[in-house]
Every structure is written in structure tokens, then in C-alpha cells.
Amino acid sequence: MTQTIIASPDISSLEKEVDQIFEAQKKYSQDLKNTSAQERITKLRILKKTILSYREDIHQAVYADFKKSSAEADLGEIFGVLTSISHTIKHLRRWMRPKRIPTPLNMLGTSSQVYFEPKGLSLIISPWNYPFQLAIDPLVYAIAAGCTTILKPSELTPNTSALMKKMLLEIFPENEVAVFEGDAQVAQALLKRPFDHIFFTGSPQLGKIIMEAASKHLTSVTLELGGKSPAIVDESANLKDAAQKIIWGKYMNCGQTCIAPDYVMVQESVKDDLVMEMKTALRQLYGENNPQNSPDYTRIVNQRHFKRIKNLLDDALAKGAEILEGGQSDEEDRYIAPTLLTGVNHDMAITEEEIFGPLLPIIPFKSLQEATTYINTKPKPLALYTFSRKKNNQEYIIRNTSAGGTAINETLAHISNPDLPFGGVNHSGIGKTHGYYGFVAFSNERAVLRQRIGWTTLKMLYPPYTDKKKKTIDTFSKFI
Fold first, then answer.
1. What is the pLDDT of residue 7?
2. Would you state the pLDDT for residue 1?
3. Between residues 11 and 448, which one has the greater pLDDT?
4. pLDDT for residue 378 is more than 70
5. Strand 359-365 vs strand 383-387: parallel, antiparallel, or unpaired?
6. Greater pLDDT, 455 or 188
7. Residue 298: which of 263, 259, 261, 250 has the closest Cα?
8. Burial class (CB in 10 A: 0-12, 13-18, 19+), 34
């Protein structure tokens, strides 16, 4: 299966086009700022209708990019976006309404509110692993907030990127929403401009580059990154249930999911039983024989990532790791079998780098303290999963670790609740999205205080600071 990578235009014409679109969107952003909730809702309804009309085309595009099945395209690419749109349509009027703020005693006579105004001109840089969902979902919130948007999708999934450009051109003028296809050269040209907000989804390494570029213009950022997300299974867990959920969460999209379990920590006493259940779950999901023949098993996105993942496996095996299941590969097909590993250690790259592929190390532990200590030696993950029947153990893990999000007795599902904030912490991300949090990401929360005209309590504290006024200040200090 071959891919065509979208090339960038020559640098002079690229810079000229970027300037033209940027200036047009900057000019139009003031008009968008004053649009009503109804006007924005109408645009979202049109977007939703257009996505549904393009559903089969989206299936074909993501299959052409990396053999993602139509069912998985629906679940991982389309349904989440439709949920975001429907949820936003339902709540946008309330989100946009100024929020009343209580008045403290020392500010009697004033009233305070928070207004939500669009940040302005936004840039969305989206990744390849969920090329439709992770491009269109933040766009939903940019539209809801009233921002103009330039979208830079990944060049590694050219079929999906081209389809999104075609689709969005049918709905929006380019002074409101524009799509720039191309490689890193296009991203670099865009990042030179003083956007009002940048929303980036990708690796922590690229996130640092985005943040550095944004800092030159003091541009605010939302960085949805990744990291090594652990799954912890204690001896009280329902092992069959845990195995099914971990295998599903790990091997959906061939492990190319930012919140996929990166490794499993299992209490030593139930390790062998869990492994047996995981092998059973793999066969239930991808067939009794060769997962390469399953129509539901996605491929690695390109040769470079295939080689990166294969090198992680080869390095681990050379240093003493053992394959419990899988391990087969086919470079021409960009196929690596769902693989379970044991015997990993700190000398192996697989324990230090985010895997982002179908390799799953299984690490035994004796006590929860040992497990949480191990997790805390690594940067804070985007997600953490706990499988346990014991509420005390669940709470212990939450209290003694830090993660962008956590699911108990489940994987991935926390991303599906639009009322939950989604995002990382430190190395795994900055800022939150989804639902109200996505709307806020593209909004400036503007503080507004109203004071009455004429005499006010504050005038009692103007200079000169007489003894009487000092006594008044002393009195105020007792009630603050």
C-alpha cells in the first residue's frame, strides 16, 4: 500500500498565500466577534449535515491513508465530532452568556461579570493518527467561540487532509476557515504569524517547538500531547473484563492513539492469569489466526513509523525482553502484530519512549506503592487507567499519581463524555478541551466590573491618608 505525501509549494508563493489568508482572517475576525449564538449554531448545524453527507468519503479517505475500517472510522473519527457538535449546539447560548460574579463586602455598590469574547485568529495544527476527528473537533469550538481559523492537517494522511479541505471550502469562505495542506515547511510559515491562539495536537517533542514559536508573539496555546499512559491491574480486578478493555483500548487504531495504554502494571499474583485473558481477548477481537487478515486491524501510518516501532521491539528483545504473544511484522504492508511483552527494563527504549504502536509491555508489581512509584519516575501521562474492585485502591492510585485524565475499570471512554475536560498536564499537555472547556480554550474570559456614578465606597480610601482614613483602612482589613 503506497501513499502520496502532499508537497509544499515554493516558499515565496507559500509566504504570499499565508499572508493573504492571514490578513483576510484578521480583518474578518472583528465581524465574527459580534455574531450571535444563533448564527454560530447555524454554522455548526451546516457542518454536521456536511459531515454526514461525506461519511462514506471519510471512510474511504482514512482507509486509503492507513487501512482503517469503516466501523473504526465511525467510532474514532466521525461520531466523536458529531457528539461535540450536538453538545455545543445544545449549550452554546448558556456558554456565551455573561457570567455573574459575587460582590465582596469591600466592593459594595459594584457588580461584576465575566464576558466570553473570541480570542480572534486561531491556528489548528492537527495530527495523523485520527486525522479527521482531531482536526474538526477543535474547529467546532473555534466556530462556537467566534474565531477565524486556519487549519493545518497532517501531510502523513493526505487523502483525509484533501477531503477536509474540499468539505470545508463548501461551507466556509477562506477569510473565516482556511485549510493549508503540506509538510513542515507549511507549518513553519504559519507559525511565523502572530496568531491569537494556537491549538496543537501531537507529540511532546513537537509541542515544544510549537510553544517556542508561540512565545515569540506571546500567543496562547492549547497543547494536546501524549506520553506513556499506564494501566494498573490489581489482584482484586475482574481479569477477563480488564483484559478485554485493555486490549480494545490498546489496539484500536493499531495502538496509534494518544490515550492508549502504553504499558500494563499488574499485581504479580495475577500476572499469568491476566496474560491468558489478554491472549483470549486478542483472538476475540482480531481472529483466531493471523490479525493481518482481520479487516478491523489498522496499519502503521508510514514506513518511518513502522521502522521506529520495529526498532523498539528489536531493541527490547536484544536486551532480554520476551514476547508473550505476537511479534510478527510485514514491512511492505506496514503491519506489526498485536504484541505482548514481558521482562522489560530501564535499559530498553520501549520503557522510556512513548510507543504509539501495537507493542504492550506487561510489568509486574508487588504493592500499589511500588506501582505508583514506578509511574511517578516518568513524566505525567495524558491518561491513567485503574482496574480494581477495591475503592480504597482506586483512591490510593488517584491520590498518589498525576495524569491528564483517569478512567477506572475502563480505557479510552473518558474522552467520550463532553462534560469532562480533556487534556494533559505538563509533559502531556497544556490546557483542556471538549465541551465547555473547548469553548473556553478559544475564548478570552474578560472581567467586567460596573461601578455607580458619583460617590462610592472606594472614594473613602483616596489620598490624602488622614488618621481617619487610616482607621477606615484598618477597619476594612478586619473584614477582608
1. 52
2. 44
3. 448
4. yes
5. unpaired
6. 188
7. 250
8. exposed
Residues 414 and 383 sit within 8 Å (Cβ to Cβ): yes
CA distance 243 to 249: 10
Instruction: Kindly report the pTM of this predicted structure.
Output: 0.94
Q: How many helices (H) and strands (E) does the chain have?
A: 16, 18
Residues in Cβ contact with 288 at an 8 Å cutoff, skipping those fewer than 6 apart? none
Please give the single-letter amino acid code of residue 361: P
Pairing of strands 329-330, 335-336: antiparallel
DSSP secondary structure letter of residue 105: G
Q: Which residues are catalytic?
A: 224, 258
Is residue 368 within 8 A of residue 390, CB to CB? The reply is no
pLDDT at 478: 78
- Can you give the length of the chain in residues? 480
**DSSP for residue 289:** S
**100 Ramachandran zone, left/alpha/beta (phi>0; psi -120 to 50):** beta
DSSP letters, 189-240, are HHHTS--SEEEEES-HHHHHHHHHHHHTTT-EEEEE-----EEEE-TTS-HH
